[in-house]
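User: Can you help me understand a structure? I only have the sequence.
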Amino acid sequence: MIQNQGLRLFVEPLACSFEQIVWSPHRDTNLDPLTKKRYHNFLIAHVPELTLPTAEEERKAPDHADNCYKSGTKWLLERTRDKKQFPLVFEENINYGFARNSLAVRPYALAVIVVCVAAILLSIRMHPETVWYTDSGSVVSLGVALGAFGLWILLVSENWVKDAAGAYTRALLATCDVERTH
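Assistant: Let's start by predicting it. Here is the structure, written out as tokens:
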């Protein structure tokens, strides 16, 4: 997915959080208990050799519980790869990947914008007499660059990635209610 090794260093720490968001049924309060139980029952019935821990077992051995949830996640991901059969899962996966990758490149984007703003300001400083009369392009460029900086700061955030991961999670888990998954 990401070819540049440098970018991987930023993206991979976020990638590991997906399974934690997907599978922490007893620790997570995003789904009601009946839905969690239905999803648990579906996975136990369909995933070979999978046993999911009780709330008590999860508290006593959270690492083992996480491994069980990761196994269930991998099974469910493999069964829902058909984008025609599971279009919402496909769409939310794209949204999650876009948000995660945008956050990963945010430092680079901000650095480029800062360099652009500095260049525009330097241009204005070198030709102050033309800024307001004939060189409106510099003023417009400065406004666009500052607007882009604001958007990258305000919109591209860890919360955005978490929201996208949550939407992907809900779409993936909802496939447990669809007979086509098994």
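Now, to help you interpret it: The longest helix spans residues 87-126. The radius of gyration is 23 Å. Let me know which part you'd like to focus on.
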